[in-house]
Amino acid sequence: MPLKKSQPATDYEEIDRWEKGVGWIAHPDETMLRASHAFATDAGVWVVDPVDAEGIDDLFAEFGDVAGVVVLLNRHYRDADEIARRHDVPVYVPSWFDRVPEMDADLRRFDTTLPGTDYELLKITDSFGWEEAALYDADAGTLVVAESVGNAPYFTTPGERIGVHPMMRLTPPSELRDLRPERVVVGHGRGVLDDAARALDDAIAGSRRGTPKLYAENLRMLVQR
């Protein structure tokens, strides 16, 4: 299984569907399991950290017109520019992001909330070149996390439905503590749509304790590649 595929996706695997949103993995046979999401608000449909795939515009259309493309991690620009240009909408990035590539699409910075929505912008980390945010709408019950927690194989130990990123295991993200989402969708792998608050609590509470096991499992995966 390749770590990451670079060629354009000719299909995609749908994941994480709920009433007002959906996710997809453009290359379900890669180790990184790069996941993307689209969700509907009164302002339109927002596409988050997207990896493009044939037919993906039809998936967006189920929820309405695209209002914008959002990037929540400075390593997740992925196909944001191309999708934004195709829908003639801006790319939105958190105001504190420094590492922003040149784009043909209109680039807009935001803070506090995603424009025209109730999604709160959470600052997860801004250190050592890692710039990450999350989006949370308490009323809608949806938490969108780019990288600090995930469900690709290298994130989780047995029993974890989502796990803290290997590089954050010893200092799990404090901004995600005490949130009570109905669903957590992530940038790598499938999210959690059932009893999500408990899954998030378990991931953060067990982060340090599970570190040795996770590192051993990841080392084993590397050796077997």
Describe the overall structure.
The chain has four helices and 13 strands. The strands form three sheets. It has a seven-stranded mixed beta sheet. A four-stranded mixed beta sheet has the order 8-9-10-13, with helices on one face. A two-stranded antiparallel ribbon has the order 11-12. Helices cover 17% and strands 28% of the residues. It has helices at 56-61, 80-87, 196-205, 211-224, and strands at residues 13-18, 21-25, 35-41, 44-48, 66-70, 91-94, 107-110, 120-127, 130-137, 142-145, 149-150, 163-164, 183-186. The longest helix has 14 residues, at 211-224. The chain is an alpha/beta fold. The model has no long low-confidence stretch (mean pLDDT 92).
SSE layout:
Blueprint lengths: L12 E6 L2 E5 L9 E7 L2 E5 L7 H6 L4 E5 L9 H8 L3 E4 L12 E4 L9 E8 L2 E8 L4 E4 L3 E2 L12 E2 L18 E4 L9 H10 L5 H14 L1
Parallel strand pairs: 4-5, 5-6, 6-7, 10-13
Antiparallel strand pairs: 1-2, 2-3, 3-4, 8-9, 9-10, 11-12
How would you characterize the largest beta sheet?
7 strands, mixed
Indicate the proportion of strand residues: 25-35%
Distance between the termini: 8 Å
Oligomer: single chain
Average of per-residue pLDDT values: 92
